[in-house]
Design brief:
Layout: E1 3-5, E2 12-14, E3 16-19, E4 25-26, E5 29-33, H1 35-47, E6 52-54, H2 64-71, E7 81-86, H3 95-108, E8 113-121, H4 123-131, H5 134-144, E9 147-154, H6 158-166, E10 172-176, H7 187-196, E11 200-204, H8 218-225, H9 233-242, E12 249-252, H10 257-269, H11 277-291, H12 313-325, H13 329-341, H14 354-358, H15 365-393
Helix pairs in contact: 1-2, 1-10, 6-7, 8-11, 9-10, 12-13, 12-15, 13-15
Length: about 400
């Protein structure tokens, strides 16, 4: 195992972190973790040198934290840092922060969480919890000794990322990054910005939730096989992220022991500069294959925000483009339903034209929103019809 500085905190951690969000579970019910198998996997990872284990309040239906606690019994807890996250969407008043943390400590059967993050911040959730005094809460709990390093995980634009980074003396952050998404959300620019501030940067989704680990487009497989035919898609994905020196830890949500063993091997072989020109060119060609599938040339700059009607225009276009990049229509339906639930979907467009007047790309935003809406409604109707048919057959 290789280790890197955890930002300017003085700590060092394994380059591979164990993400406890895709543990083996019973079919169709992620809350029913296959405990013996999951515990064995985590303990094997720690035995292989992993020193960073990441969990969260809601993972596996709220059962991930307790599983991690069981896996780290018998002396293993002292060998790792446990990272956990405050579910900001469940905090409706300031007193909820303390209640949620206490619940997490109870689940973990611990008195301290080594790395504590505000979970899944975006522009709106950040403003809400900031105004509720979450930063004062974090400082107070750190002084009490119940939490250690302070950070946040993030899903929004680069501009919002910079605002959050600059708002507090964070120890770390957690961002989505892989060889395809270098300009998506915080992106490569966010990695470099945070690292320059002395923050540790933990990378999630290095394999895009498994989409870069299997079922690659033929053109991508060909580009890779021309350089290293013996490397697996997962190897290409992890090595790409670990080649960036600013990365502190790469999280992998492992689902079986084979993945644990493969990732331990890859992590032991990967370091900044371990990829040469041929490998980097192959990765660039692979990224271009995915980018050529993009349907809407939105750069996620955020100039159209805020929409007077609350439409999350960059997010609408983002989930639509992802569906075509990774041939994932079910993912489009799932993510779009989240936008509908928060009343930020394209159906709320009032055709005022403000977005089109400020779009640097000159996009016909209104007609594009209508196109996305029509297509997604059709997909959602088909998904609902399929679900009803399946229910009747039971």
């Amino acid at each position: 195992m290789r280790y890197r500085d955890f930002g300017s905190t003085g700590a060092k951690h394994s380059v591979l972190g164990f993400g406890a969000m895709r543990l083996p579970h019973e079919k169709g019910d992620s809350s029913r973790i296959r405990e013996d198998q999951a515990i064995e996997m985590i303990r094997r990872a720690v035995d292989g040198g992993v020193t960073y284990v990441d969990t969260a309040y809601g993972y596996h239906g709220g059962n991930s934290e307790a599983l991690v606690a069981k896996a780290l019994r018998d002396g293993l807890r002292s060998k790792v840092a446990v990272a956990d996250k405050l579910p900001v969407w469940l905090a409706h008043e300031p007193s909820d922060f303390e209640k949620l943390l206490s619940t997490q400590l109870e689940r973990l059967n611990d008195e301290r969480i080594d790395v504590y993050l505000l979970h899944s911040l975006n522009r709106d959730s950040w403003r809400r919890v900031r105004d509720m005094g979450v930063l004062d809460f974090l400082v107070k709990e750190r002084e009490r000794g119940r939490i250690g390093f302070l950070g946040f995980s993030f899903h929004d634009s680069y501009e919002v990322f910079v605002q959050i980074v600059d708002a507090f003396e964070w120890d770390m952050c957690q961002i989505m990054l892989n060889y395809v998404d270098v300009e998506y959300q915080a992106g490569l620019a966010g990695l470099q910005y945070a690292a320059a501030k002395g923050m540790a940067v933990v990378v999630m989704e290095p394999l895009r939730g498994g989409k870069l680990a299997a079922g690659l487009p033929p053109e991508v497989s060909h580009a890779f096989s021309q350089v290293h035919p013996e490397w697996t898609p997962a190897e290409w994905g992890l090595k790409a992220v670990l080649d960036w020196p600013e990365v502190s830890v790469v999280l992998s949500g492992m689902s079986d022991m084979d993945q644990v063993e493969e990732n331990l091997r890859i992590a032991s072989e990967s370091f900044p500069g371990s990829l040469g020109p041929a490998e980097r060119e192959a990765l660039q060609r692979a990224r271009q294959v995915f980018m050529d599938r993009v349907r809407i040339l939105c750069t996620q700059c955020g100039y159209c925000h805020p929409c007077p009607e609350g439409v999350a225009i960059p997010q609408v276009f983002g989930v639509y483009n992802k569906a075509y990049m990774f041939d994932d229509r079910s993912g489009l339906v799932r993510e779009y339903r989240d936008l509908v639930q928060s009343q930020k979907d394209a159906s709320h467009c009032a055709r005022c034209g403000r977005c089109e007047s400020v779009c640097p790309q000159g996009l016909e935003v209104i007609s594009l929103l209508e196109k996305v809406y029509a297509e997604v409604v059709e997909l959602m109707d088909k998904a609902d019809a399929g679900a009803r048919a399946a229910h009747k057959s039971v």
